[in-house]
Write a structure and sequence with these properties.
This protein is an alpha/beta fold. It folds into 2 domains: about 120 residues, ornithine cyclodeaminase, domain 1; about 160 residues, Rossmann fold (3-Layer(aba) Sandwich), CATH 3.40.50.720. About 35% of the residues lie in helices and about 25% in strands. Helix 2 packs across helix 3. It starts with a strand and ends in a 7-residue tail after the last helix.
């Protein structure tokens, strides 16, 4: 029986405690060549406003595909900028297993990957977190990063000052200007829909770690040249970064490693180095998360299939 897993069903079983190590395993397999996955196909519906992404991946135990709507124009309203659906199959037989709402999976797997790489790269005594952006990804990263670091101070900035103030009030953070938020911070997250740089390299303290999760188009960026060229750059996929990441393409910053290589221990970045993880989001992350959810949901009381 094909399962239909909506957002409420996914919320009952998906936790960062299980998801973070699952993302490490999935990306290590990807970087080891054990996953078949093309770079996502992005269909431009309306430049700068509406896009449709097609993201298939085949893993050893499962395969699937995500259709994701990326609508920057939704940032000013109540509808999320990212909406998605995932179909999951069994690899050996091609048997369809489940259709899943992709919004929460996309949100949580993105933050989980950042948390996983932060655990490997951030200063061992990281205490200050700066969030540039105050939307769903900022909230997800605050929760996920709390699994791997003990922050004593959380700072937040948004292009919409009122949103930053509201986020700060909800989460016990401090709203401030971007430069003030970044200076002295140990871990920084850029999670905006800005097409232009919101973080400057001159603001970063030596040894800081940046998770850059916005700017998923080749002519968009969140970090300036100084931030990119002055840091050790890790990506989720070299091929995807060279085709999709404006942060990498426009700065021409060299790529040191893929996250999967760091997880597998084949590449090592010293913790005292300033590091940037450029996250684009991969289909393998979605399929691995969908399988995690599917297996967990089957174990729920009263589950069928």
């Amino acid at each position: 029986m094909v399962r239909m897993l909506d957002d409420s069903a996914i919320a009952r079983v998906l936790t960062y405690e299980r998801l973070i190590p699952a993302m490490e395993r999935a990306l290590a397999a990807f970087s080891a060549g054990e996953v078949t996955q093309p770079v996502r196909t992005m269909i431009t519906i309306e430049p700068g406003q509406r896009y449709l992404g097609v993201m298939p991946a085949v893993m050893r135990e499962s395969m699937g595909a995500k259709l994701v709507c990326f609508y920057p124009k939704n940032a000013s309203g109540d509808v999320p900028t990212h909406l998605a659906s995932i179909v999951l199959f069994e690899s050996d037989t091609g048997l369809p297993l489940a259709f899943l709402d992709g919004r929460r999976i996309t949100e949580m797997r993105t933050a989980a990957v950042s948390a996983a790489i932060t655990r490997h790269l951030a200063p061992a005594d990281a205490r200050v977190l700066a969030l540039l952006g105050s939307g769903l990804q900022a909230q997800a990263h605050l929760e996920a990063l709390g699994q791997v670091c003990r922050f004593e101070e959380v700072r937040v900035w948004s292009r919409n000052a009122a949103h930053a103030q509201q986020f700060a009030a909800r989460h016990g953070a401090r709203a401030m200007e971007a430069q003030a938020a970044v200076r002295g911070a140990d871990v920084i997250v850029t999670a905006t829909s800005s097409p232009q740089a919101v973080l400057r390299g001159e603001w970063l303290k030596p040894g800081a770690h940046v998770n850059a999760v916005g700017a998923c188009l080749p002519d968009w960026r969140e970090l300036d040249d100084a931030a990119m060229r002055g840091s050790i750059v890790i990506v989720d996929s070299r091929e995807a970064a060279m085709r999709e990441s404006g942060d990498v393409i426009l700065s021409q910053a060299p790529i040191f490693a893929e996250a999967g290589e760091v997880f597998a221990g084949t590449r090592h970045a010293p913790r005292e180095s300033t590091t940037v993880f450029k996250s684009l989001g991969l289909a393998v992350e979605d399929v691995a998360t969908a399988r995690l959810v599917y297996d967990a949901a089957r174990g729920e009381p009263g589950a069928e299939g």
